[in-house]
Design brief:
The chain is built from 17 helices and 16 strands. It is of the alpha/beta class. The strands form 4 sheets. The protein has a 7-stranded parallel β-sheet with strand order 3-4-2-1-5-6-7, sandwiched between helices. Strands 9-10-8-11-12 form a 5-stranded mixed β-sheet. It is globular, with a radius of gyration of 22 Å.
Length: 450
């Protein structure tokens, strides 16, 4: 971070700011706009796409920018950038194609549309910072292949919990401790939540009900932990992760694991068996109802008795697992730092290191009926769960990132995982094409359809 702020200061003093285009101007996009415009010298948000032009204008207006130019062509956008004007458009491809933009921040949470945007940006040699774990967790590995070939950086972002975990993972590893678990602290987990149950909370915070539902029903955290796994080489211990819930099972967990429990994440190292973690090569997981929420944690180990003595002296305990945590995640506040890391240092905050280690599968939230068309993430019909990628391939499980719009061939009972053989996939989607490329590129052995 301190290198980043110095580099941004130098760009500001030179009159050569990092120029950013943003795709999406919803709740989080408006926060990013406000942050860049008012708090990040050395960076300019030169253009915003939104399906509704008024939404894009609102983002700038809330940030205090009144002089905004609406553009319809690449030439008009390039002219606006050259003249130092802020631009809005309802054509995302203009931002992907225009000269004078260093990086694109993708903030939609959409998978098919996000895939189209990212591929176009990469084709035009633009770095991409994803605030879209859903896209990353579905086809991130193959998008990374395309980015590498084009010589640009594809990265997740600081601030969101996956990026905070990755920063902490890198720190823990850098001091000689071996990370064995990357975790996320939640306040609620209920796979049967839906937009109706979450409507009040969504209105309270000015968010969309289906986005809030995706957090509550476990879909979002599954995507977040999947991309952490894919960036570290870790896996999951079981389908859905352990997900120890202290809100519902505190007394049972204290007794089972003989915990000296005060309610803090430091008390939770005994939940995990070190030998199992080592055998698996590390895992991703989450806990519910502990402090500091909504932070993140990394549990690591050290084999050197001398260093164990020092860690004990520094109040990290006697091991064998040592607890490191960050007590907050600040989402849009940190996204500009990610852009600066990518543009100025070619340092990806987080990206897949190879093929997928963990996928997010589709599970029925209710009893589903043949002939129905599946709705989207955070709605009424499905929720997402983490599963090992090799099991997903062997059992032909349907990634939830591809589920929306699929038509059911047969009845599916509540809580059953869906397979490709249970659905008809819509024709002509880029996300399906890229997923097939990903499977082929990384050598996934997909059994033939039944």
């Amino acid at each position: 971070m301190f290198i980043v702020d110095t580099a941004l200061k130098a760009r500001a003093e030179a009159g050569n700011p990092v120029r950013v285009g943003m795709i999406g101007a919803g709740f989080m996009g408006r926060g990013i706009c406000n942050q860049i415009v008012n708090s990040v010298p050395g960076m300019e948000l030169v253009a915003i796409f939104n399906r509704s032009i008024e939404g894009a204008k609102r983002a700038y207006t809330e940030a205090g920018v009144e002089d905004v130019r609406e553009v319809k062509t690449v030439g008009e956008l390039e002219e606006a950038i050259a003249q130092g004007k802020y631009a809005v458009t309802d054509d995302a491809m203009l931002i992907c194609q225009a000269e004078g933009i260093d990086a694109i921040v993708e903030v939609t949470g959409a998978i098919e549309f996000g895939a189209q945007v990212v591929m176009e940006a990469i084709a035009n040699k633009k770095h991409v910072v994803l605030m879209n774990a859903e896209l990353d967790g579905t086809i991130g590995p193959i998008l990374k292949v395309y980015a590498d070939k084009a010589g640009v950086v594809l990265s997740a972002c600081d601030g969101d919990q996956p990026g905070v975990q990755m920063n902490l993972y890198r720190f823990v590893k850098s001091i000689g401790v071996t990370p064995l678990l990357c975790g996320n602290i939640k306040g609620l987990q209920d796979p049967y939540r839906n937009p109706t149950t979450q409507e009040g909370f969504a209105k309270q915070w000015g968010q969309k009900a289906h986005m809030v539902t995706s957090f509550a029903d476990g879909t979002k955290i599954s995507f977040e932990q999947a991309i952490v796994a894919n960036a570290t080489g870790m896996t999951v211990a079981k389908r859905g992760m352990y997900g120890y819930d202290f809100n519902r099972h505190k007394d049972e967990l204290i007794e089972k694991f003989n915990l000296n429990y005060t309610g803090h994440i430091d008390d939770c190292t005994k939940l995990y068996d070190v030998d199992e973690l080592k055998e698996l090569g590390g895992i991703v997981d989450y806990v519910v109802g502990v402090r500091p929420g909504p932070g993140v944690y990394v549990f690591g180990t050290h084999d050197d008795p001398k260093q164990q003595h020092y860690l004990n002296l520094y109040k990290l305990g006697t091991g064998p697992l040592y607890s490191f945590y960050t007590p907050y995640h600040l989402c849009h506040f940190e996204v500009p730092l990610s852009v600066a890391r990518v543009v100025l240092f070619k340092d990806a905050v987080m990206a897949p290191i190879a093929g997928p280690k963990v996928d997010v599968i589709t599970t029925a939230k209710i009893d589903l009926k043949a002939g129905e068309t599946l709705d989207g993430l955070g709605y009424y019909m499905t929720y997402g769960e983490c599963e090992k990628a090799e099991i997903v391939q062997a059992e032909r499980l349907l990634p939830i990132g591809l589920a929306e719009g699929c038509r059911l061939k047969r009845d599916i009972p509540k809580d059953q995982a869906l397979t490709y053989d249970d659905v008809e996939i819509p024709e002509g989607r880029l996300c399906d094409k890229l997923r097939a490329e990903q499977d082929a590129y990384f050598g996934a052995k997909v059994p033939a359809a039944v």
